[in-house]
Amino acid sequence: MVTAKNQIVTLFKATSTEELPPNFQSKFHTHIYCERGSVQFNFNNGSWQGKTDEFIFWLAGSEVSDVSFSPNFRGTVLLVEKSFLTDNVPSVNRSIDALLYSMENPVLHPGKQDKKKIFSNFQLLYDRSQETDHRFYEEALKLQMQLFLLEMWHIFAEEHERRKRSLQSGTLYERFVQLVQQHCMIEREVKFYADRLHITPKYLNQVCKANTSIPASQWIQRYTKERIILLLQNKNLSIAEIADKMNFSSYSFFTRYVKKVLGMSPRAYRKRI
């Protein structure tokens, strides 16, 4: 499979990885619906598998490697050019958890209705990209891209909620991660999470290290960093508004924290993007 030089959206059936364009991981945001067989791949230093009736999503530039399709694989692949998707992301204020969930969990397990929505979303976006004679082609395609993302985020959010409910009786570590995802916008102290789990901060660190070799404070910082990046990318929010939204006591304290986790000030990060 070779995409046209300026193709923004590509939709095709695939049975082999040879049908994927060269360097697709860096050039495109990849969406695969596995209709038959399975997909094996490494993602963020972990091994993953997408099976029949499951959906796989990789952002361009994700740490994806060793992609292989089973001999009986058949699937629908949607590729969206990197900058086109990124430049048309809707406001993430209400969807930040769904977006982060999709970045950390690349395999989605949709139900029958969501499966229909995914196929429909694939086709609508592709069809709109082909209507180059439309008087308002660019505006219509951008709106279709935003609708596509909102629909997909909705499906990811639904799965995220189901997973949260299933984890309520899970291990201490799983419950800790769930709490961090829920509260790290405003709570960044290990003691807050230890108190919620009715254990000491020292024991919480031991639990995290036993499961991942990473202490609780670093997990909190990681999830906080991801939210800061997403909020800074939304230029409709001022830096002061972001600091207030994340419950920092002052603008200067927020700036110092961002320098610690991003290596530069919030203003410098915005200039870079």
Automatic annotation (TrEMBL):
InterPro entries: Homeodomain-like_sf, HTH_AraC
Alphabetized GO MF terms: DNA-binding transcription factor activity; sequence-specific DNA binding
Pfam families with a match to the protein in the record: HTH_18 (PF12833)
UniProt keyword Transcription present: yes
Signal sequence bounds: none
Keyword entries, A-Z: DNA-binding, Transcription, Transcription regulation
Domain (HTH araC/xylS-type) ranges: 174-272
Annotated PANTHER family: ARAC-FAMILY TRANSCRIPTIONAL REGULATOR, TRANSCRIPTIONAL REGULATORY PROTEIN
Protein name, entry field: AraC-like DNA-binding protein
